[in-house]
């Protein structure tokens, strides 16, 4: 039996994760009081029930009792009950945006700003993040992508690496992505925008890709960037980093940056990490 504790930042997707696990056949309980977790484990692991897998949601809503969770987990281990911790995270800007879109109050910011509640929550649940078996950053994940990650972990039992590489193409005229860790400027390459037959196409079109990649500078840049990331990623993981956002920018974010981001994705997608791509400005008007 798998006993999964689903936790993480409020607004990072815990409810979606629990619903997904429930669809996978897990017996799910959300916001179970800390004092009842050990008793619930005794029932779940008992011989007189037909429960195969269990997932419980635990988060900041437990209030002051959350501090008792470390002792509770210690008791579970001593009693021979195995468990796994799934921690869902997201960057602060996205969490604030999600709260504004849903118009809900953060559990810790009823009389203050959402940002303050997020900051307090991050401090109070830091111990759970350190103990987590799986960390999923949902900052740039679609719901179907989160479900796919959960399927990989809890159904396919595939080896999971919590490090996620996000490759983002963008246009400098629209601003640098706020969550970018590394930013690369490819405006030194010839611009397909000034080629009449390519102007209305994008870096997802073969004609634009062939135009951009015909230049030695583009191919050399891509090779050097691949070498750099293959060196950096293992070292970031060694230091405890669980994600990296690599932003590749050109003027408008439709031609050169998209082409190079696609090339980077194709070369790195087979790495033993989660690799995703997003063309932030490709849909903007010329």
What does the model show?
The protein has 286 residues and is an alpha/beta fold. The protein folds into 2 domains: 2-154, P-loop containing nucleotide triphosphate hydrolases (Rossmann fold); 164-279, no CATH class. Helix content is 40%, strand content 18%. The chain contains 10 helices and 9 strands. β2, α2 (34-44) and β3 (53-57) form a beta-alpha-beta unit. α9 crosses α10.
Name its key features.
286 residues, alpha/beta, Rossmann fold, 5-stranded parallel β-sheet, 4-stranded parallel β-sheet, 2 domains, elongated, single chain
Q: Strand sequence of the main sheet, in spatial order?
A: 2-3-1-4-5
The amount of beta strand, in percent, is 15-25%
Number of strands: 9
Per the principal axes of the C-alpha atoms, what is the gross shape? elongated
Query: What is the H-and-E element order?
Result: EHEHEHEHHHEHEEHHEHE
Give the termini distance in whole angstroms: 54 Å
Q: How many structural units, i.e. domains? A: 2
CATH architectural type of the largest domain: 3-Layer(aba) Sandwich
Computed CA radius of gyration, to the nearest angstrom? 22 Å
Counted by DSSP, the helix tally is: 10
Report the CATH superfamily of the largest domain. Answer: P-loop containing nucleotide triphosphate hydrolases
Give the CATH topology of the largest domain.
Rossmann fold
The CATH class name of the largest domain reads: Alpha Beta
* Biggest beta-sheet profile: 5 strands, parallel
Q: Report the structural category.
A: alpha/beta
């Amino acid at each position: 039996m798998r006993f999964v504790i689903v936790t993480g930042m409020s607004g990072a997707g815990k409810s979606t994760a629990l619903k997904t696990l429930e669809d996978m056949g897990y017996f799910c309980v959300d916001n179970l009081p800390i004092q009842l977790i050990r008793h619930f484990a005794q029932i779940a692991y008992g011989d007189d029930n037909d429960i195969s897998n269990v997932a419980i949601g635990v988060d900041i809503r437990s209030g002051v009792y959350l501090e008792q969770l470390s002792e509770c987990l210690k008791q579970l281990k001593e009693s021979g009950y195995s468990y796994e911790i799934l921690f869902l995270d997201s960057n602060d800007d996205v969490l604030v945006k999600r709260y504004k879109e849903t118009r809900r109050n953060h559990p810790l910011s009823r009389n203050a700003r959402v940002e303050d509640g997020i900051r307090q929550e991050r401090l109070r649940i830091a111990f759970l993040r350190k103990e987590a078996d799986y960390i999923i950053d949902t900052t740039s994940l679609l719901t179907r992508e989160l479900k796919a990650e959960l399927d990989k972990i809890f159904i396919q039992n595939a080896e999971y690496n919590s490090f996620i590489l996000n490759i983002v193409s963008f246009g400098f005229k629209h601003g640098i992505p706020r969550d970018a860790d590394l930013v690369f400027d490819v405006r030194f390459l010839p611009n397909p925008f000034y080629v009449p037959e390519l102007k209305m196409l994008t870096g997802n079109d073969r004609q634009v890709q062939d135009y951009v990649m015909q230049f030695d500078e583009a191919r050399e840049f891509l090779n050097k960037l691949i070498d750099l990331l293959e060196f950096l990623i293992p070292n970031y993981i060694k230091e405890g980093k669980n994600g990296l956002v690599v932003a590749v920018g050109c003027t408008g974010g439709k031609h050169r940056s998209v082409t190079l981001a696609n090339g980077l994705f194709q070369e790195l997608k087979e790495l033993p990490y989660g690799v995703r791509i997003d063309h932030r400005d490709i849909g903007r008007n010329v």
